[in-house]
Amino acid sequence: MASEETLIVDCDTGIDDALALLYLLGDPGVRIGAVTTVFGNTDPGTAALNTLRVLELVGRSDIPVAVGAEHNRRGSRHLAPDVHGADGLGNTDLPAPRTSPIAEPAAELIVRMARENPGTVHLLAVGPLTNLAAALQLEPELPRLVKHVTIMGGAMLHPGNVTPVAEANISNDPEAARIVLRAGWPVTLVPLDATMTEAITEEQRRRLAEFGSPVTTFTAAILDLYLDFYAQHAFGERKAACHDPLAAAIAVGDVEPLLAPVVPVDVETGDGPARGMTIADLRGQYRGFPESGAAAVRVVLETDRAFGDRLVDRLCSDVPNLGAA
Ligand code: BDR
Ligand code: CA
């Protein structure tokens, strides 16, 4: 990660969101300026409490957590208790955190921090894009103030995980996704094409449990339900996709994508069966219809499929924050 860079993580914490935060917190070279929460895996208040729990676990309650959008731009929402548990953390029913979210709303915090740190804020969005779209509405200059935006979302050649064609973060607020992609700032999109090939397995979960630090005991516990869900609905065995931690690792430059073309990407916002679909123009010919308004986005299509081990190595490391056993 560039030394002058400050991350704002916008998330719907969530099991893999928690893993993403811990992955980042395990690197003393990564500066997280704030975490903002949004509805998605759970409601934004619960996501904030889960974030505070994670921060407390690693002694980083100094990082402010701001609550954001309760629902999408149409006033609806779809939560995912079947994937992430009723509490968002795999039904582990952890005690309430000692700290509370700040009063400032998420979108306002994003705008304020971007104004205070022009050119150095990197937005890492791993939930629905409602907060980012709201921030763009509050400050039209935001694309000039922010250094980069990395988003976990979309499905290009891979099927969707909510509908046959739509991925959860985009499907939860397609209108916001379109606003964010078209805002004219540099965007890296990390879709299911990459994240579904980067798995964490039952064997790796056992390694975390056996390591026995507070962080690895926590991660092994929250992964239990997540692995069940993916075994039943996706992989037929106990392993799960590393969606949000992979996007985090790409954002800070730990994972160098093997294939990441810069291509026009648009989002379907109609009400038909393709609602929430991300359409990347991956054709070698006939490419780019300037009149379509689609934004040029760096789309990560392939990584080296070794991230599960890197994630577990990081969580089992002796970085002081992660509290080795
Ligand atoms: C995305 O949706 C959420 O359930 C995960 O946390 C991830 O951000 C995957 O589609
Ligand atoms: Ca997420």
Automatic annotation (TrEMBL):
<keyword id="KW-0378">Hydrolase</keyword>
<feature type="domain" description="Inosine/uridine-preferring nucleoside hydrolase">
    <location>
        <begin position="7"/>
        <end position="305"/>
    </location>
</feature>
<protein>
    <submittedName>
        <fullName>Purine nucleosidase</fullName>
    </submittedName>
</protein>
<dbReference type="Pfam" id="PF01156">
    <property type="entry name" value="IU_nuc_hydro"/>
</dbReference>
<dbReference type="InterPro" id="IPR023186">
    <property type="entry name" value="IUNH"/>
</dbReference>
<dbReference type="GO" id="GO:0006152">
    <property type="term" value="P:purine nucleoside catabolic process"/>
</dbReference>
<dbReference type="InterPro" id="IPR036452">
    <property type="entry name" value="Ribo_hydro-like"/>
</dbReference>
<dbReference type="GO" id="GO:0008477">
    <property type="term" value="F:purine nucleosidase activity"/>
</dbReference>
<feature type="region of interest" description="Disordered">
    <location>
        <begin position="70"/>
        <end position="98"/>
    </location>
</feature>
<dbReference type="InterPro" id="IPR001910">
    <property type="entry name" value="Inosine/uridine_hydrolase_dom"/>
</dbReference>
<dbReference type="GO" id="GO:0005829">
    <property type="term" value="C:cytosol"/>
</dbReference>
<keyword id="KW-0326">Glycosidase</keyword>
